[in-house]
Amino acid sequence: MRPRSGTFNQNIVNVMRPRKNSSPPGISNDIKSKRTKISQDSTPLPSYTSSDVIIDVLKYINRNEIEKCQLLSYNFDSIITSSSILPVYQLQEIIMDNHRGWTAEVPVKTNILKKLTSLNSSLVRLNLNDENVQASLGNCYVKRMKISIRNDGENVLKKLVNIVKHSGKPILAQLCEMVFVMGEYKWLHQIPMIFKDLISTEKFNLVFYTSPPLQYIAKNPSCVELDNPKIEINIETANCYGVNWKKSKSSLYQLIAGEGLETILNRGTIELGHINGSEEDFLASVIKILRNSTKLQYLFKRINFAIQARNRDDTIYHNIFIREGYVPYKSLQGRYQDKQRDDGWIIEVDFNHEYLMEFVILKPGEAREGF
Description:
Structural class: alpha/beta
Helix content: 25-40%
Region (Disordered): 1-46
Organism: Acrobeloides nanus
Shape: elongated
Strand content: 15-25%
Strand order of the largest sheet: 3-2-1-4-5-6-7-8-9-13-12-11-10
Oligomer: single chain
Radius of gyration: 26 Å
Mean pLDDT: 78
Protein name: F-box domain-containing protein
Number of strands: 13
Largest sheet: 13 strands, mixed
């Protein structure tokens, strides 16, 4: 639900943004008056307690409790607001889309935010075009960030640069999803710079609606060569119609076989939707590609394919994998392993999912996560 007035919106921004002065400029009058009353009661820090010790203690307290400490006195507030290592405010989602808007959703759960609103909504939507909101992001951590590109890549990039300019630091996100709907493929070469200077994240999902940009990535892997090896890269396309997956040097073949992917440091999952042609022929080709690959360390850890859900006959899949030398794994239905490699690597397949068939590449001695 949107806030009823700009005043409420601004109050939330002021709470989130870092405050440089000892007298916090953005807190509402109600909060200020409560702090004044408390500070008049003389609640200074004990003379023998250093600010470093206070910070060390506060590091183990959640943000809600820290906000309560800020209300004790101006001394406590000054120490807390001047610290750069305490827990940050958490945002639910940031959306950067010229069609849907540029917004940030804030959970109304924290101690101070509850005092600023009488709304029942658990989320408040802020306008990312507001410079005050942009400045506030430097003190926030977002769970999910979604960027959409529709023939407006340069414009999106300029806005992103402007946000970071006002916040003073890259946007911190747990997951960043970039949806490339349409546009010049050359824009994809901006991705390494974006995740070096503008966005800091743990996981990066690159999503395409059609196969041509996926083919471009396969031919130009430098587009997803990120400096930070800790960022997991996942690539997904809605469909692969028209892609020649049988040709030995086709882009789809290269992605499956791991050819030319040596410089992509942390490969997570690649998901390919709606492969044209016979599923049986396609699976036989994929099995052959993976078995003949000599660079399994450069493959994506998981390779997913969309499969037919209606009138599906798992017996067909069973017969294909048995014929190709796969063996059932621990008598689990729909799960098979290829252990014919001399290098100890194991290729495991699982078609228990309703719409997906998943190949998992396991290092020697490695167990599949989640089982």
